[in-house]
Amino acid sequence: MLDAKIPSGPLDSKWTDYKGHCKLVNPANKRKLEVIVVGTGLAGASAAAAMGELGYKVKAFCFQDSPRRAHSIAAQGGINAAKNYQNDGDSVFRLFYDTIKGGDYRARESNVHRLAEVSANIIDQCVAQGVPFAREYGGMLSNRSFGGTQVQRTFYAAGQTGQQLLIGAYQALERQVALGNVKMYARHEMLDVVMIDGKARGIIARNLVNGELERHFGHAVLLCSGGYGNVFYLSTNAMGSNVTAAWKAHVKGAAFANPCFTQIHPTCIPVSGDHQSKLTLMSESLRNDGRIWVPKKQGDNRSPVDIKEEERDYYLERRYPAFGNLVPRDVASRAAKERCDAGYGVGTSKQAVYLDYADAIVRYGKIEIGKQGRENVSEEEIIKLGKEVVKEKYGNLFDMYAKITGENPYEVPMRIYPAVHYTMGGLWVDYELQTTLPGVYALGEANFSDHGANRLGASALMQGLADGYFVIPYTIGNYLADEIYNKPVSIEHPAFKEAEQAVSDRINTLMNIKGSQTVESFHKRLGKIMWDKCGMARNEAGLKEAIQEIQALKKEFWSDVKIPGEINEMNPELDKAGRVADFIELGELMCKDALNRNESCGGHFREESQTPEGEALRDDANFMYVAAWEYKADSEWELHKEPLVYDVVKPSQRSYK
């Protein structure tokens, strides 16, 4: 079942050789082929723009009112690329190696090396689009550090890199819309894939404004619908982010890979109460200059400014001297949890640690004084100048923190705690980004392919744009070259009618339950089960309990959920109900996957499998594979394994010490 289609030959020439031998579609034939793109974040917008520019007829769908509202816009810290502008030893191989190691040797070598290869092209593309990357005084693009690396390879635009990159991709997309190559469908949600003779031939979408179901034909379907972190209810994802598009493809036969690989981000503003429906991220770029610490004394309630240097435990610098505060996200997150669980947490909840910029402010202030050639300058003046530098680099992040917490992070250390952020699992795809459903492709966070068990910071934007701009335009030709003989299928085809009827029946079933509990209450209960038993740490007993609890929650949902309003109107509660129903099914599969993977790796931490120092302990002999789950029936999946073969990088116990 799982043919990864990895090209033969040396790793560093696979992609070049593939591009030289893949099938092509001539320009006249491209105009006859229709491609559907679901989602218009960085992966979707770049793919739609690239496909439109090549001459294909593209239909792009997003559930937001504009592609500019895609969740990619929320990314803050930066985008990786192996440009080696700093002359600090970076290279394509180094980026490839860091990504494989950061993912705890659970990623596919060929895909990761291709990602590292095309990374440099992404920066050139974005600069040409006018993305305002930060620059050094002399005009060169600036770089900063991110977790899991010892070089500076992250390009950024203050703390709003995702927004600027998305505007660039959006401009490219809108140009193709204006030229008539792309037709944009905003406020539409994909609710099923239409399969005819074993190939994808379109989708069923719901118009979220008037509630009508629509049929859309396509020779291929590209799913660029993002990740599923909102299965935990509280996450850094936008509240609309969901798994529905990917899940519909999964139920139709697309294998779902490594669903339990969830990334917990270490620098999030802590939960403040039960009223919260979303968490806010503080960019990982803040670990570039900030220092993370807790008091050395348990239960220390003093203000952080009153705690002297010798009374502070800079625990990441102590435990991981080689990487310090720049260890990968999974390592930093578990270390913060360990300190808080041991009684060293800070703040009212005691579920937080400090991220302190005092040292960075003084350091930058002294650099500014040196630039001016001044001596005997007061400490106040040094701090003032240092704050100005920090404000220029991270100002919007500091402002956001101040607005949310009411505290001034220039004066008092930020309080942070780990939170659900990204999902490394997703639809299984081969080297061409095609799922196990012919004609259905998955790009960006919707697929599993590039990050293993833990994504390095600033690599999500890299993967989304790499897939959309530089990978799919080549690989989809290998499939579409054989489709030029196939004329568009009428949307009156029985398969379209059958798929639409199934979607309609499900919506009517939901609306006719007329129970007593809100959709939100079910989502919140699911999130609590997932966070408590399949969150930062998992164990066999907890996962078995979680599976039973989710199955019971599912029965309760389908018998007692309350959805107000009507079907044929704008009804956000109905939209949310469908998404939560899919999350409940996904949650069960995540727990089954976590239970099956009896090892610790990256973001998947089984308490039964750890080193004496509390680090993740892999079991390469038994689990060096991609777990691809095939949907069989309700609560029933079959596991398929794609063995991971490492020809270049030899797996070893990760060490950041």
UniProtKB/TrEMBL annotation:
FAD-dependent oxidoreductase 2 FAD-binding domain location: 35-461
Pfam families, per database record: FAD_binding_2, Succ_DH_flav_C
EC number(s) from the headed UniProt entry: 1.3.5.1
Lineage: Bacteria, Pseudomonadati, Bacteroidota, Chitinophagia, Chitinophagales
Membrane topology: Peripheral membrane protein
Active site per UniProt: R329
Enzyme class: oxidoreductase
GO-annotated molecular function: electron transfer activity; flavin adenine dinucleotide binding; succinate dehydrogenase (quinone) activity
Fumarate reductase/succinate dehydrogenase flavoprotein-like C-terminal domain residues: 523-656
Similarity remark: Belongs to the FAD-dependent oxidoreductase 2 family. FRD/SDH subfamily.
Domain of life according to the entry: Bacteria
Gene: sdhA
Catalytic reactions on record: a quinone + succinate = fumarate + a quinol
InterPro entries for the chain: FAD-dep_OxRdtase_2_FAD-bd, FAD/NAD-bd_sf, Fum_R/Succ_DH_flav-like_C_sf, Fum_Rdtase/Succ_DH_flav-like_C, SdhA/FrdA/AprA, Succ_DH/Fum_Rdt_flav_su, Succ_DH/fumarate_Rdtase_cat_sf
An annotated GO BP: anaerobic respiration
Reported cofactor(s): FAD
Alphabetic keyword roster: Cell membrane, Electron transport, FAD, Flavoprotein, Membrane, Oxidoreductase, Transport
GO cellular component, one term: plasma membrane
Primary localization class, coarse: membrane
Full protein name: succinate dehydrogenase
Compartments where located: Cell membrane
